[in-house]
Design brief:
With 361 residues, this protein is an alpha/beta fold. 41% of the residues lie in helices and 23% in strands. The chain folds into three domains: 31 residues, no CATH class; 165 residues, Bordetella uptake gene, domain 1 (D-Maltodextrin-Binding Protein, domain 2); 93 residues, 3-Layer(aba) Sandwich (D-Maltodextrin-Binding Protein, domain 2), CATH 3.40.190.10. The protein contains eleven helices and 13 strands. The strands form two sheets. Strands 4, 5, 6, 7, 8, 9, 10, 11, 12 and 13 form a ten-stranded mixed beta sheet that branches. Helix 2 packs across helix 9 and helix 4 crosses helix 11.
């Protein structure tokens, strides 16, 4: 009987009795459980729900712990300009409210591409933010190629400030208003230069728009930063410059330069005696804005957290006063409002650039 086997079964296990020549050895093995297809699907669904819940719990916990290290805000313009000054003030206030350091980083390039790439390639964890300006909306139509789509590459958080631009000239210049500019530019367009910061910025496209609207082939010269624009104007390399009141406030107050035209629908609150372009016969109007965005797919909890703090900062009397002194209007928004504003500006500038005949570069 050596090697003989007998199989006994219970509900959950199978018992095998082996004869070893001297007696029976009782061995047991787990019975393989057979389940129906429906039961298998039910168990798989239960597991999936559990995993999703765990993932959501981890994400929520991560958002609740935010921030626990320095936050970086990348600016696509050089130091000293409106976006730079406004963002540094915002960053200071945000650091005070969150208890975490806010690091401001300037990365200049045409159309904000270098800075934009740095943000779109960052983790969507709220620790890398971007100063998205109205100039980026322009870049979509001005540049032949962009490595990212401004409308989809970022998660909107809030607007920060709105501003008009001004046209500046040397104080001793014979250019006193936009009509004088047009006369001088028509007389010698080859030698008439307009200075702005980086290509694709709101200032730069405003100059291109004036050039197109007046049909005068003046030369638009771009510089790395606002101080460079000022230097070129004072040195005589350019005859006029397009910049914000904020960026050149100290030069205005010291009498180094004078404002001769405003680009907005209405006159600048800081220079109410300076007429608009339309008042001077130029069919052009530009209102700029700056905002804070994050990489696409940033968790909603983090966006809500940042939006709440930014809205509180922008609404504070101290911040409003300081921004007004810079020639801008402090104004926050919901993420949805910022997204709508960006989409509307992209569409508007695409049409303006097309009608103006400005060729993408």
């Amino acid at each position: 009987m050596t090697g003989a086997k007998r199989r006994l079964s219970s509900r959950n296990r199978t018992f095998i009795r082996n004869w070893n020549g001297q007696g029976w050895l009782l061995q047991n093995r787990p019975r393989t459980e057979r389940i129906s297809t429906g039961e298998a699907l039910r168990r798989a669904l239960t597991l999936l729900i559990a995993l999703l819940f765990i993932g959501a719990t981890i994400e929520t916990a991560s958002a609740q712990a935010y921030p626990n290290r320095p936050i970086r805000i990348i600016i696509p313009f050089g130091p000293g300009g409106l976006a730079d000054i406004t963002t540094r003030l915002l960053g200071q206030k945000l650091a005070e409210r969150t208890g975490e350091q806010v690091v401001i980083e300037n990365r200049t390039s045409a159309g904000g591409i270098v800075a934009g790439n740095a943000v779109t390639s960052a983790q969507p964890d709220g620790y890398t933010l971007f100063v998205l300006s109205s100039g980026i909306a322009l870049s979509k139509s001005l540049l032949k190629t962009m490595p990212f789509d401004p409308a989809t590459a970022f998660t909107p958080i809030s607007t920060v400030a709105y501003f008009n631009l001004l046209i500046f000239a040397e104080p001793d210049s014979s250019l006193h208003d936009i009509k004088d500019v047009l006369t001088a530019a028509r007389n010698d367009p080859v030698k008439f230069n307009v200075g702005t910061i980086s290509a694709g910025s709101t200032q730069n496209v405003t100059a291109e728009l004036i050039k197109s609207a007046t049909r005068i082939p003046m030369t638009v010269v771009t510089y790395r930063s606002t101080p460079d624009v000022l230097t070129s104007l004072l040195r005589g390399d350019t005859q006029i410059a397009v910049e914000s009141y904020t960026a050149l406030k100290s030069a205005i107050d010291s009498g180094q330069i004078k404002a001769i035209a405003a680009t907005g629908e209405t006159r600048s609150p800081m220079r109410p005696n300076v007429p608009t372009l339309r008042e001077g016969g130029v069919n052009a109007e530009v209102v700029g804005w700056n905002s804070i965005v994050a990489p696409a797919k940033t968790p909603k909890e983090i966006v809500t957290f940042l939006n709440g703090h930014i809205r509180a900062i922008v609404a504070s009397p101290d911040f409003k006063k300081r921004i007004l002194n810079l020639g801008s209007e402090a104004k926050a928004s919901t993420p949805e409002e910022l997204g709508s504003r960006l989409a509307a500006d992209i569409a508007k500038w695409a049409e303006v650039i097309k009608k103006a005949g400005i060729q993408p570069h």
